[in-house]
């Protein structure tokens, strides 16, 4: 899987209609502050595309990142470089739909001339979907309920959703809301891949014990894949890419 370009295509709030993407979607769910946006940036090989928060509750919308869209345009334009120049919004603070929708980021790496000679049609288009984090204490109950409904609706209604990753912090036993999320994902017909985030925060000798704790805490079905990951060291990123590749 090559990721040549990514753009934030659609931002959904409580009332927005879910987009008809026509391409496969892969989603990332997990508690607020667990590292969903950081992981999406690592998988996409971008430093700041998905906003990362110092405080929990950073991502409050469902954000659809469209991967390799420009590759497809390039094919349509018979190899004319179609790397649209775009701005990366620098506004701080909680992400809103308007700020976010303005960001459109061209490929940062690679030799453009060499890329143009490559058979662009081999690059698959797909979406990475950043879901709002649950379990953030400083959100009024009414808003929490709306986030829950938004995630539930997304899981129920998205025909093109082919894979759900559930992120949990490697340091902690999963909480009741993680378990509920796991059950929701399974109830909607998905077999989630679990990602144990912030693996740089524990010692290697603790890894297997923490993974066992996560499995039992979630009540994960036998055979469930649990991948340790660190956005800091990027360990685990290739394993996550392979999991995505398997459904494309
Ligand atoms: N040490 C370490 N810190 C991480 C890692 N991943 C994320 N963080 C930090 O954890 C905080 C939250 O990361 P985000 O990626 O914004 O988490 P999120 O799950 O998207 O949070 P919400 O949008 O609030 O749901 C930030 O301060 C990140 O820098 C990791 O692998 N290792
Ligand atoms: Mg986020």
The 3D shape can be described as globular
CATH names the topology as Rossmann fold
Give the strand tally: 8
What structural class do you assign from the helix and strand content?
Answer: alpha/beta
Low-confidence stretches: 79-108
Strand order of the largest sheet: 4-1-3-5-2-6-7-8
CATH superfamily: P-loop containing nucleotide triphosphate hydrolases
Largest sheet: 8 strands, mixed
What compounds are bound to the protein? guanosine-5'-triphosphate, magnesium ion
Question: What is the domain total for the residues?
Answer: 1
Per DSSP, the total helix count is: 8
* Strand composition percent: 15-25%
Secondary-structure element pattern, one letter each: EEHEHHEHEHEHEHEH
Mean pLDDT, to the nearest integer, reads: 82
* Assigned CATH class: Alpha Beta
Features:
248 residues; alpha/beta; Rossmann fold; binds magnesium ion; 8 strands; binds guanosine-5'-triphosphate; eight-stranded mixed beta sheet; single chain
Task: Give an overview of the whole structure.
α6 (176-187) links the parallel β6 and β7. The radius of gyration is 18 Å and the shape is globular. With 248 residues, it is of the alpha/beta class. It contains 8 helices and 8 strands, in the order ββαβααβαβαβαβαβα. It has a single domain, classed as 3-Layer(aba) Sandwich (Rossmann fold), CATH 3.40.50.300.
What topology does this entry show?
Blueprint: E1 6-12, E2 25-30, H1 36-44, E3 62-67, H2 69-76, H3 97-101, E4 104-105, H4 112-117, E5 126-130, H5 141-157, E6 161-169, H6 176-187, E7 193-197, H7 207-218, E8 226-228, H8 237-245
Parallel strand pairs: 2-5, 2-6, 6-7, 7-8
Antiparallel strand pairs: 1-3, 1-4, 3-5
């Amino acid at each position: 899987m090559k990721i040549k370009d990514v753009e934030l295509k659609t931002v959904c709030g409580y009332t927005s209609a879910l987009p008809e993407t026509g391409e496969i979607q892969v989603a990332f769910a997990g508690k607020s502050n667990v590292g969903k946006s950081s992981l999406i940036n690592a998988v996409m090989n971008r430093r700041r595309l998905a906003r990362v928060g110092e405080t929990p509750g950073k991502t409050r919308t469902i954000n659809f990142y469209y991967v390799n869209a420009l590759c497809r345009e390039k094919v349509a334009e018979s190899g004319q470089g179609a790397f649209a120049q775009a701005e990366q919004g620098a506004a701080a603070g909680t992400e809103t739909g308007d700020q976010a929708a303005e960001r459109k980021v061209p490929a940062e790496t690679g030799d453009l001339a060499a890329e143009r000679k490559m058979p662009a049609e081999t690059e698959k288009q797909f979406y990475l979907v950043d879901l709002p984090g649950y379990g953030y204490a400083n959100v009024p109950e009414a808003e929490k309920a709306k986030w829950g409904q938004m995630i539930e609706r997304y899981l129920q209604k998205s025909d093109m959703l082919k894979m759900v990753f559930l992120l949990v912090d490697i340091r902690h036993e999963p909480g009741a809301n993680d378990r509920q999320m796991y059950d929701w994902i399974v109830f909607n017909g998905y077999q989630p891949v679990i990602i144990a985030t912030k693996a740089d925060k524990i010692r290697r000798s603790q890894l297997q014990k923490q993974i066992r704790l996560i499995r039992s805490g979630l009540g994960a079905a036998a055979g469930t894949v649990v991948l340790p990951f660190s956005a800091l060291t990027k360990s685990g990123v290739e394993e996550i890419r392979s999991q995505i590749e398997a459904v494309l």
